[in-house]
Amino acid sequence: METPFEIGIVDKKKKQAFVYSTNYLRLEEYINDVALLLRVKSFKGKVVFDLLLSNGSAFNRFIEVFFDGSNFEIRTSKVFDANENILNNSLEFYNSHISYLDDSILTRAEKFLIKRKQQYVFQKREIKAVK
User: Fold this and answer.
1) Whether the Cβ atoms of residue 34 and residue 6 lie closer than 8 Å to each other
2) Alpha carbon 88 to chain centroid, angstroms
């Protein structure tokens, strides 16, 4: 089994990193492994987790947590609505890693949309298609 995550963009200047889920496993099952890799990269800052493959397009798909250079400060974690830039980066990531979709909770319809470079975003209890 591959690692349950992939660290995508690490911008030390902006103090921001993006972590994408690569299967259905919950974040709690691999967050310590993410911390280890971020320590190796000497990273300190905001980490955005895209949990699409484990949470789908639900309200808790995107989580932001501060990493202090050694550990995640869990008390700083928050669920947030991603902006268009984050959504587009995420769509590009998953579209270029189609095989990850097979080991997820996504429906066939959601997988189809990602393969066609479209995605669903959960907002205010309704689902809207985004291109």
Assistant:
1) no
2) 12
Length of the chain equals: 131
Task: Please name the residues in contact with 28: beta carbons below 8 A apart, sequence gap of 6 or more.
Answer: none
Residue pLDDT, tens place only, 36-76: 999 999 999 999 999 999 999 889 999 999 999 999 999 99
Question: What is the number of alpha carbons within 13 Å of residue 79 lying toward its C-beta?
Answer: 11
Supply the pTM of this predicted model.
0.87
Q: What is the dihedral of CA 27, 19, 63, 101, to 10 degrees?
A: -70
